[in-house]
What we know:
The protein has 469 residues and is α+β, with helices and mostly antiparallel strands. It is 31% helix and 22% strand.
Amino acid sequence: MKTRQVDVVIAGAGLSGLSVARFLRRDRPELSLLVLEKSDRPGGAILSHCEEGYLAEWGAHGFLDNCAESRALLALAGLEGEVEKAPLGKFVRYVCLGGKLRLIPQKPGKIIAAPLVPLWAKLRVLGDLWKKPLPGEPTVAEWVAHRFGSSLLPFADAVFTGTYAGDIDRLKIDAVMPGVRGLEREHGSVIRGLLRKRAGMKKGPGKRPLLPAMTSFKTGMGRLPQALAEGLRLNEEMYYRSGVAAVSPAADGWWEVRTSQHVIRCRHLVLALPANQTLALLDQVREIAPPPMASIPEAKIATIALGFTDRARVPFGFGYLAPEQEHRFALGALFSSHMFPGRAPRGHLLLEALVGGRRHPDRLELDDEELVSRVYNDLRRLLDLPEEPSFARVLRPGAGIPQLEEGYPALLDWLDGQCGGHAGLHVCGFGWRGIGINDMTKEAAKVAAAILETTGSRGAEAEVKPVYF
Length: 469
Ligand SMILES: Cc1cc2nc3c(=O)[nH]c(=O)nc-3n(C[C@H](O)[C@H](O)[C@H](O)COP(=O)(O)OP(=O)(O)OC[C@H]3O[C@@H](n4cnc5c(N)ncnc54)[C@H](O)[C@@H]3O)c2cc1C
């Protein structure tokens, strides 16, 4: 068993762990740090797939460029020249309603004007100005129906299918949109709160920001963790195939971290793992109070990448999402080669359909051939696809998307209590205070800042995210 001593150990070389490492390197290069990664590559849930001239994604397809921490990370990774952007202002999304694709404009004013719901349903949205905040821990569906009326449920369903692959009858509004819930509490109405925020921005210096852009890289999202990891010295600052098996606080206030081959002592321990892996590790620590729940649910999805010749006619945009009430096979599909041209060979286009999610895990039991055939049959009822796909690949990521459901706020309180009560313990990662890339980089920056003792701030005001990915 080899032993080492470093200032900081980071468990996990996904985007969260790599971000903590690179922020620390930038601000305090003299700190000794070590990233321990269970697998043989960086990136965790982020991985790109290149085959026959198509470029698809196992996990994340992109992130919005409206997050300062993610932009800082791009600069640290030296990737600004490799970025590809699909501006939200130029693109549209579609929602499947009544068996047809309906265009959703990007700007709030145009959404209100669009004939997506009848006039009475639009007027009901204004009911938000008078509705009292719902007490307790309402689900997204209960909360949306209460504040804005049930006509908006299919749209809420589409949003949370597109982000969490989740079920709005189980996701909790306080967990998935704490910022919006904060507006409701503070101003008595979400609309009033947003208008006041907007007025404040108008009064402030400079113009209001433009709509952000969906961002990826010429060689796909996998490029980001790869470039971040390249900045760390292999076998000195980064160990692959080194899963953390156990952690424990030592009597002198340091932490001891065990892998199958190493025992490492560190002053700061960062668990940058998906929520369930962190819960499993902390559960073994005698000094840590047991969590209110042993694990949180996860939603698995498969990506069915389909290539078509240019006889296929697909409307311009990001893609579409299908609310559950439509009873479709696929949750939706990304029009990937519209978003990022160059993801398909010349004269071809790439669609990436998503299947499974919180409501339909059974569909992931189907074999690849069946999945491809059922997705193609589903898509061609919505899109003009006269020929069978000329390319098909099923990508089944191992990672599930954490679902922030019943009991999640209590779990966060427990986590804050443990991190506050055990010096040197820091937690960020997939499912802790969000699930998107920008959530991960923000939390990683907070952990790095806490380690550098510039701030220990955890209780910052919950952000109102203008657009979800
Ligand atoms: C299918 C899918 C689609 C997504 N799409 C988007 C999107 O379009 N936009 C967006 O913003 N976000 C998206 N996300 C979310 C995004 O991918 C995550 O926010 C992000 O990748 C999480 O990074 P992480 O480092 O926290 O966790 P992970 O990526 O899960 O990394 C954790 C790392 O820890 C390692 N590990 C686990 N256990 C141990 C251990 N005991 N010891 C050491 N190492 C360990 C794992 O091998 C892994 O490398 C998607 C996620 C999925 C699954």
